[in-house]
Write a structure and sequence with these properties.
The complex is a heterodimer of chains A (114) and B (114). Helices cover 0% and strands 51% of the residues of chain A. The radius of gyration of chain A is 13 Å and the shape is globular. Chain B is mainly β and 114 residues long. In chain B, strands 2, 4, 5, 6, 9, 10 and 11 form a 7-stranded mixed beta sheet that branches. The radius of gyration of chain B is 13 Å and the shape is globular. The mean pLDDT of chain B is 94. At the A-B interface, strand 6 of A face strand 5, strand 9 and strand 10 of B.
Chain lengths: 114, 114
């Protein structure tokens, strides 16, 4: 079984500042890694995913994440945030067998203020 | 592509009443997942279907919960009788089961049991 720890429940940041949302995972097998975003009163949307290849993954809306196997981390970054990035962000991990094994972290609320 | 459609968006009911949540997956998707989201436990997988057949219902909390998928375009999650601790946001998601295709979430049903 896998587990995900999102170290910050809330991250306040000013508009145009850089941000990093932290995610660590635990697993005894090879994994795939995901970041999802949830806007108020909506379902989750995929931001980016790591399946294989380059450890630096670029996603939508200018976000990127880096897979670090030795530190079992998959931190999400954006060099300059906008007010519209205010949302809850979920890190998720699954083994290689399918979405049924997808395990989500508790989420990090990103609060962007002017 | 209308996305995953859930109804109702909000449901308020009294303890002991039957509640039925509905989901229409994206056409062509052969996997359907039901999740529950609460502040305490985060996002949990309740049950998932493949080609309309329930594959794993180990996440269903109690016998009061049941789910069906009578055809490829419709699924229900029923709670009978409902209890206040069932209050949560319930999400339906669908996919083609390939990690190269994302998991698509509906906008959820917010259930309040008084």
């Amino acid at each position: 079984a896998q587990s995900v720890t999102q170290l910050d429940s809330q991250v306040p940041v000013f508009e145009e500042a850089p941000v990093e949302l932290r995610c660590n995972y635990s697993s005894s097998v090879s994994v795939y890694l995901f970041w999802y975003v949830q806007y108020p009163n909506q379902g989750l949307q995929l931001l980016l995913k790591y399946l294989s290849g380059s450890t630096l993954v670029k996603g939508i809306n200018g976000f990127e994440a880096e897979f670090n196997k030795s530190q079992t981390s998959f931190h999400l970054r954006k060099p300059s945030v906008h007010i519209s990035d205010t949302a809850e962000y979920f890190c998720a991990v699954s083994d290689l067998s399918g979405y049924s094994t997808l395990t989500f972290g508790k989420g990090t609320m990103l609060l962007v203020s002017p | 592509d209308a996305g995953v459609i859930q109804s109702p968006r909000h449901e308020v009911t009294e303890m002991g009443q039957e509640v039925t949540l509905r989901c229409k997956p994206i056409s062509g998707h052969d996997y359907l997942f039901w999740y529950r989201q609460t502040m305490m436990r985060g996002l949990e997988l309740l049950i998932y279907f493949n080609n309309n057949v329930p594959i794993d219902d180990s996440g269903m909390p109690e016998d009061r919960f049941s789910a069906k998928m009578p055809n490829a375009s419709f699924s229900t999650l029923k709670i009978q009788p409902s209890e206040p601790r069932d209050s949560a946001v319930y999400f339906c998601a669908s996919s083609i089961g390939d990690y190269n295709s994302p998991l698509h979430f509906g906008n959820g049903t917010r259930l309040t049991v008084t």
